[in-house]
Amino acid sequence: DMTAKGATARVATMQDPFGEQKAMALEPELSFVPESGPSSELPRSCCGVELPWFWSEDGHARSFCRTCGQKFVDLDHVHYRQKPWIGVDLDGTLASDLGTWRGGAIGSPIAPMLARVKRWVAEGITVKVFTARASAPDQVVAIKKWLRRHGLPELQVTNVKDRLMIELWDDRCVQVRHNSGRPVNGSAISDRRHQSIRETRSSSWMAPVRLLSRLKILIT
Question: 220 or 178: whose pLDDT is higher?
């Protein structure tokens, strides 16, 4: 933790290996912190350059130094300014799963899901693409191009859940009853899937054993 001289807010800092390029890529996803409020207690400069502060999707104020790439996070204040949102998985939910991300490849849109997302957007509901691809900047660029190509605005792409996410549409999710640990629709499908995985692993381990047994029979 780091506290700037004269400031009362706890501020976490970390070096960003991607420097300014990655920090700049974050700017469109954040909303600027006004002069009033918790920002008045935060560091104002780094390396002799003024720090821009933004509210991030997790509710914390964040900043970055364009000179050294160091990032700052206010640990003492949370301020939710965004609306509740729906997360939609990409591969296998909004787009056909190609089984690879190579070159930013994305499958064709899945018509019912695409129509549903367009309806939500038209109704003013905040929708975010919730995908593991969000960890790679080049994949985020590819996703936003794909969205434009199929008639959607440049929805935010994320892999971060926060308290404002009210639904998640994902082909791999199993819905669980609140505070119970019990699946809503039973566990038969999940159990069959896990049994299939176990059988596949068992088969892959037994194959060499069977081959050696056959060779032994042939030799004898």
Answer: 178
